[in-house]
């Protein structure tokens, strides 16, 4: 089964707050080129925290810990706006300058594209996901998506100049998602998207809220957010995670290059082979196809190293707010308190494992840029340094909880 790779570049994972005792605030003014803008909505990316600018365009968000934050601003008649803010040891004051939108929602023109429905379906699959929770998600305003497909590169690219609204009736959230960029390459099967989500609670009855809570906890436990939180606390194994190394070994199903080359030359070189009868021609065509397929096969395959790695040998203190996962290559992370679902095992994200290895949820974290810094809340400072395969690549926006989410029960 072909593996899919997934890069999940959410700004909410680029180093949000640490849980130190001292708290600070972000204050500021929302304005355009001429005047202040009262009534503008100001949100914290990845959270359920928001406020509204007062009659003078001023706002304040309090009780924040040291770290990196992304402010999102929404105002009718203006383009959505985001600004990164770093809090270290004091409160921060900012000025947010919006640009007027050249079109209103009713004036958005969707260019006629007979393939738009197909591309939109692919976007939903690779952005929302295909998990059971994804089936209860709906994009309320797909018309804001600008879709482009490059045939020469097999590249599907999608952008948006407005907030994408996603209703998640499985987890009980309504997401305002500022989509910066989405890309799916059908050749490499690498999925990449970046953006800023804001979470709102859906109104529900007491019994429905209980179901939301149960599903949120299932989504959180075993996630990358849960994993990095437990690593920060030095409780990775206690929380159910096992770390192994993924190593590359020669592909046992592929012949050496020398043999492949020799057979292709022999079958393609004019000579006696060109005098073969019509009865042998189909057989030689099949042989050429076989050796061409051998040539295209990967020389190495990933293999699970059975030796367990202690987190103590990987984790170091970077500074008072950050810790460092120091490693190279790829790490296999197994969550031993949940097993693979049947639905996941049938997807292209599934990770091959030896038959004697329990069917725990397995994710692979490819450390593409060396060491990775992360915060106590499970957010990653160097998001571009991680490339996910397996279960963490399978679960996407439909299984996402706020970065400050705290489960009500312990597993």
Biggest β-sheet strands, sense, barrel: 7 strands, mixed
Shape, principal axes of CA atoms:
globular
* SS summary, helix count: 7
> Roughly what percent helix?
10-25%
Question: Strand-residue fraction?
Answer: 35-45%
Structural class: alpha+beta
Instruction: Using the CA coordinates, give the radius of gyration.
Output: 25 Å
Distance between the termini: 32 Å
Order of secondary-structure elements = EEEEEEEEHEEEEEEHHEHHEEEEHEEEH
The total count of strands amounts to: 22
Oligomer: single chain
Residue stretches low in confidence (pLDDT < 50, at least 5 long) are 9-20, 272-277
Pfam families: CarbopepD_reg_2
Keywords: Carboxypeptidase, Hydrolase, Protease
GO molecular function: carboxypeptidase activity
InterPro entries: CarboxyPept-like_regulatory
